Prior knowledge:
Elements: H1 4-7, E1 14-18, E2 26-35, E3 38-47, H2 72-80, H3 85-88, H4 103-112, E4 121-123, E5 128-130, E6 134-138, E7 144-150, E8 153-167, E9 173-176, E10 189-191, E11 196-198, E12 201-212, E13 218-219, E14 224-226, E15 233-236
Parallel strand pairs: 5-15
Antiparallel strand pairs: 1-2, 2-3, 4-6, 6-10, 7-8, 8-9, 8-12, 11-15, 12-13, 12-14
Amino acid sequence: MTRRALLAILAGLLVLAPASPAVAGCSWVTQVVYVQGVAQVNTAYECSGDASADPVADDGSSTPPSDLNLDAICTSTAMSLGLDPYEVCLPPSQDGTPPEVTPGLVRAALRVVPLPASVLEVQPANGRTLVNFDTNFFTQTDEFDRTVTLLGQRVDLHIVPSAFGWRFGDGESVTTKEPGAPYPQLDVTHSYLTKGRVAPSVDTTYTAQFRVNGGPWRDVPGSVTVAGQPVELQVLTARPTLVGYN
C-alpha cells in the first residue's frame, strides 16, 4: 500500500467515502478503519430501498471503482478529508524525490492528533459563588510539540493554544487570547445576575506550525477547537447578618 502513511492520521476515525453508483439506489462504499496501528479497508456494495443488491450493471461497474486512476484507498481518504487527490495521492517521481507534504495534508493531520481539553478553574474554589460578584475564571494550557509521519516523512508540529472561548453557563460568553489567571490577577471574570446552578466551561482553539524532516517552519492553515468539560457552579445570594458588636 503506497499511501499507508496517509491512513495513519485517521487513528480511531471511520471514513465513509461513497464511490460512483453502479445502479439506481446502489453504490460502492469504502470503509477505512485505523485500529491499533493497522489499516483495515473494506469495500461493500450497498443498496437502499428495493434496489437489487446484486453488484452487476450494464456499465461494467460490478467491481469497486478506482477513483481518478490513483491509489483507490488514498483517493477515498483524501476526498473524505476535503483534499485534492492529485495533491496527495500521486506516486513519487522516478528520480526518487519524496512526495510533498502539503499544508493541507498537515491540516488534516492536526484535526485527528489528540489535543488536550483545557481544565477550567473557578474562584471562589468551593463550587459556589455569589450573585453580583466578580467570579474569576482561568485555565492552564501550554504550547507543546507533536511528531507524526505523513507520506513516510517526519513532520514536527508546534501547537499553540491561541484563543479561549469562555461559556459561563447563563447564556453569556466571551473569547480571549489569554488563559486568565488566578487571584489577585483578574483577567477573565463574570458576574451572575440571578441565583441558581450553572455549568461554565472553556473551549480552546489551537493553531500550529510544522516542519518536514527538520526543514523550515511553516504555518498550518486553519485551527482546531477542543471543547472543555463543564464544571458545576452554584450561584447564591447573601444577606448581611450582624454577628457581633463591641
